[in-house]
Structures are given as C-alpha cells and as structure tokens.
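In response to reviewer comment 3 from the previous cycle, which asked for concrete evidence that the modeling workflow produces usable outputs, we include below a single protein chain processed end to end. The sequence was submitted unchanged, and the resulting structure tokens are shown without manual editing.
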Amino acid sequence: MNYDTFSNLLFSRVRRADVTLAIVVVNVVVFAWLAVVSRSPMQFPSELLIRAGGNFAPLIQKGEPWRLLSALFLHGGLLHVGLNMLALYQAGQVVERLFGRVGFIVIYIGAGLIGNLASLWWKQGGVSVGASGAIFGVYGALLAYLLQQRGSVPGEVFREMRSGTLGFIGYSLFAGFSLPGIDNAAHLGGLAGGAVLGLALAEPIVSPRPVQWLTRRALGGMLAVVAIGGVLWQQTPEVVRRYEVDSAYQQILQRFALEEQDLLREQAGLMDALRQRRITEAAALDVLEHDFIPRWERQINQLSWSEVSPASDWQRRELISYASARRDALKALAQAFETRQTVWVERSRALQVQADNILLQMRLRKSVEAGGR
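The workflow returned the following structure tokens.
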C-alpha cells in the first residue's frame, strides 16, 4: 500500500477530527475560566483546582468519583495546558481517524480514567489534574495500532509514526522522572490503558468499520481495562479518615491563632492601662482570673482533646506547652497582685520568656522541615 492510498483510506473514515478539536476547545475554555477566577494564568493554586474538580483522593473516597473524569479537563497553568493540547492536536487527529470517533472517545476517556486511578493509587497526598494521562493513552493506542496492523501502514509512514510516538513517550517519561511536580503514574497508567484498548480495537485500514465492537478481542480488551481500573481502585490506600482528622485539626489551629492574637493584644492593653493608672490592680486581677486565664485554659483543653496525625503530634504538644506557659505566667501575675511579692512578678516574666522560646523553637523546626522538602 502506498502513501496516497493509505491517506485516502484514513480520511475516508473520518473527514474531520471533530472529537479531537472539541476536546481541545473544552480544555481551553476551562483553562480560561480558571485563569479569570485565579487572576493568574501561569499557575493555579491547589485549592482552586480541588474546588474545580481535581483528582483529590480524600474527596474521591468520600463519594466524589466523578473527579476522576473532571480532572482530565483541568490544568495547572498556561504551560501545562499549552503542551498538552499541542500533543493532543497532533496525535488525536490520526488516532481519531484510525479508530473512528466513538473508538477515539473510548480510548481517550478509558485511558484517562486508568491514568487518574494509577495516580490515585500511587500517591494520595496532593491534587492531580491534566489531560496527559488520556493523551498518553492516545499515543499508546497509536503505538498499539502500528504493532497490530503494521501491514495497513506504508513503510515510510510506519517509521515516521513509530519514531515520533516513541520519541514523545520516551521524552515525556524522562522529563516526568527528572522534574518535580509531574505525575508519571498518570502517564504510565494512561499509556497502558491506551495500549490495551488500541490492541483490542485496532482494525485494518481497509476494514469497512474502524472498530468491530462485538469481536472477542474488542470485548476482552475493554473488560481488561475495566479490571485494571477495579484493581487500582481496590488497592488505593484509604485516606479519608486521615484527611478528616487533619482538616479538623487545621480548624482548631486557625481558631487558636485568632484567640492567641486577641489575648496577647488584650493583655498588652491591660498592662498598659495598669502602668498609666487607668485601672486598679484589683480590677486587673478580676480580668486575669475571670477572663484571660479561663480563655487560655479553653485553648489548652481544645488542643489536648483534638485528634491529630502522628506527623502533627509534636506541634500540638508544643502548642499545649506554649499555651500552658502563657496561662501560668498570668497566674503568677495574679499571685503578685494578691501577695505584692516581687518573686511572683519575676516568675511571670520567666514564664513569658519560656513561652516565647517555645514559639521560636517551633518556627525554627518548621523552617528546617520546609527546607528539607
């Protein structure tokens, strides 16, 4: 078969690659919407991508599996969507004509879902977005077609497609292993899903139909992809409980930070009023015993009873020590007001210094841990 015959047969199957173009348009429109919302097209924050439907394990496992599909149409920024859509536009037009519109949709969605399930299975910590798993599936299906139906493709076309496909796959996987932030699990999962579907659905270029859906090979391939997806889903570690615990703890930390700021500001105001004799020691003692000290007690109790992950337990313990030092400093000050003994004033100052040191050590540890990552 010569090049002209192959080209005519290819375009006689699908005149225009409308599905490929439609997917590109949808991805660009979604990207534009996120760019408007975030006001920065270069990189979108993780929180926005999660709200928009990103692949996020805790929410998927809580009953939102639709995120495995919606994540295929989300991208993290301009470079991400630009490279993905260029690769899809180039390969999609060929694969859509080889497998037909319906076959292309099955390959694209099926490989994309397998890619996102592989990403979910490999790492449950962050949000994953992008069409790259589905695009790898498109290239995997193209490579499978070249292997399965080599006789349908002229020699020069075969060599050109093979080298281009292998070059894209090899370079992309190398970049994924070399650069941080690239989800190679989704790439490999999508590539495997696309290759299995490509082998199952590939028909000779002279076939009257791009895909023979009721053949044993086609049905077996689709069932195999479903089975792979099921295994990945079953083997994904459960992270919902850990996520709920971390979310509840973060809310406690936010409330603690706000209350701490209020208390320190009010305490400074009280001491300033006392120095300027705008308030008596008796009135200050009443505020300490019935307002400030009970509020520090409540913060200590909330932290003590909160459930945290092992990674955050050190922080909770240090915060309890910090809040306890602040409370004890106020108790010592109250004793100074009652007894008029300077030893309690010195004790109060020492406890305040201890609280400041605890806070400083916590910040240093966080800085070291952030640097290590």
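The domain at 3-235 is CATH 1.20.1540.10 (Rhomboid-like fold). We consider this sufficient to address the reviewer's concern, and the full set will be provided in the supplementary archive.
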